[in-house]
Amino acid sequence: MRRDAITAILAVVAFTLIFGLAYPLAMTGVAQLLFPDKADGSRVTLDGRLVGSSLIGQDFRGDPAYFQSRPSQSEYAADTTFFSNSGPNSVEEREAVRESLAAYVKLEKPYDRSLTRADVPVDAVTMSGSGVDPHISAANARIQAHRIAAVRRLPLDQIEGLIDDHTDGRFLGLFGEPGVNVLRLNIALDEEAPLPTKRGGSR
């Protein structure tokens, strides 16, 4: 009995040291060596200042000069990511989507009179599983491009070129859908046509 207890304790200690200490430290070291940017949280800096992470969505609402992220259940709080968990038959979810759709059309239609509710991509009015998805669809970005071009007084094709430059492809060319990183795109906008006063997450 005593021998079994000692063996069990030694096994717990050994596995704790191996998998609880040595393995995480080794993986951290490998990540820092091979992928230092990703290992540090894919932080985005501007003029030496941290402005966010390319992995976490930010709130650009209220400023028509910037591309808007998709809706967030947690108000873009990275430390409390969650989603509504409402199903397609939920009355509350339907109302939330209707409100988001109405707000989206109200914001974008003055800059693109041909826009209809049927044209609005699903990611523009629904939340991601995490609530802080940093990407929007290319279709969503191209609708917003009309507003950006008008507010910043830039050619539409120039804005669409920036969208193309900041569209990430499918993972390994197979998985997921192409997406536009909102934070990086907004930073590129400020570099292309600086505003008198920097606002939003890219200030």
Q: What would the keywords be for this entry?
A:
203 residues, mainly alpha, 2 domains, three-stranded antiparallel β-sheet, two-stranded antiparallel sheet, disordered C terminus
Q: Can you put this structure into words, describing what you see?
A:
The protein is mainly alpha-helical. The protein folds into two domains: 1-40; 42-202, no CATH class. Helices cover 45% and strands 8% of the residues. It is built from six helices and five strands, in the order ααββαβααββα. It has helices spanning 2-34, 36-39, 91-108, 138-152, 156-165, 182-192, and strands spanning 43-46, 49-53, 135-136, 167-168, 179-181. The strands form two sheets. The protein has a three-stranded antiparallel beta sheet with strand order 3-5-4. Strands 1-2 form a two-stranded antiparallel ribbon. The protein starts with a helix and ends in an 11-residue tail after the last helix. 25% of the residues are buried. The model is unreliable at 198-203 (pLDDT under 50).
Q: Specify the biggest β-sheet.
A: 3 strands, antiparallel
Number of helices: 6
Structurally, the number of domains stands at 2
Output the helix-strand order. Answer: HHEEHEHHEEH
Query: What is the distance, rounded to the nearest whole angstrom, between the alpha carbons of the first and last residues?
Result: 66 Å
Oligomer: single chain
Structural class: mainly alpha
**Overall pLDDT:** 80
Number of strands: 5
> Strand-residue fraction?
5-15%
Radius of gyration based on Cα positions:
22 Å
The amount of helix comes to 40-55%
With strands numbered from the N-terminus, the spatial order across the biggest sheet is 3-5-4
Low-confidence stretches are 198-203
